[in-house]
């Protein structure tokens, strides 16, 4: 089920440091895996892009640090800063770090 207790600030610090040394500019950690529920911290360096990908049944994105742009296949997008939370579009979507950033992705991957 992932870490029984995770301190988000420590996880963010650890994965931003790892992203800064990673060739691809990102690092991720699955915090919660409980049935259909997944929560992951994703750290990205400025300019790093997660290409468009399919979305789970339901998901939200909370910016823990930095600033990102969430994009969707229809060309719409939302710029989000630390402290902001939004639903992830149900169509293909992508994410671009506008500065070094960390997000909490909460996803439901199946119907109970």
Question: Would you give an account of this structure?
Answer:
By secondary structure, the protein is mainly beta. The protein contains one helix and nine strands; from the N terminus they run H-E-E-E-E-E-E-E-E-E. It is globular. The mean pLDDT is 90.
Short synopsis of the structure:
This protein has 112 residues and is mostly beta strands.
Keywords:
globular, 5-stranded antiparallel β-sheet, 112 residues, mainly beta, 51% strand, single chain
Total number of β-strand segments?
A: 9
Fraction of helical residues = 10-25%
Largest sheet: number of strands, sense, barrel closure: 5 strands, antiparallel
Structural class determined from secondary elements: mainly beta
Strand order, main sheet: write it out: 1-2-9-4-7
The end-to-end distance, rounded to whole angstroms, is: 17 Å
Question: H/E series, N to C?
Answer: HEEEEEEEEE
Radius of gyration: 13 Å
Shape descriptor: globular
Extract low-pLDDT stretches: none
Kindly state the mean pLDDT as a whole number? 90
Q: Helix segment count? A: 1
Strand % is over 45%
Topology, please?
Blueprint: H1 8-21, E1 26-34, E2 37-44, E3 49-53, E4 58-65, E5 67-72, E6 77-81, E7 85-87, E8 93-97, E9 101-108
Antiparallel strand pairs: 1-2, 2-9, 3-8, 4-7, 4-9, 5-6, 5-8
């Amino acid at each position: 089920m992932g870490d029984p207790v995770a301190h988000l600030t420590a996880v963010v610090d650890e994965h931003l440091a790892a992203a800064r040394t990673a060739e691809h500019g990102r690092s991720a950690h699955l915090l919660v895996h409980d049935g259909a529920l997944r929560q992951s911290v994703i750290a990205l360096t400025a300019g790093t892009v997660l290409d468009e990908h399919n979305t789970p049944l339901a998901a939200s994105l909370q910016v823990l640090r930095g600033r990102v742009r969430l994009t969707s296949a229809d060309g719409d997008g939302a710029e989000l800063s630390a402290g902001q939370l939004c639903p992830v579009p149900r169509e293909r979507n992508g994410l671009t770090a506008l500065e070094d950033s960390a997000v909490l992705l909460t996803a439901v991957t199946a119907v109970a």
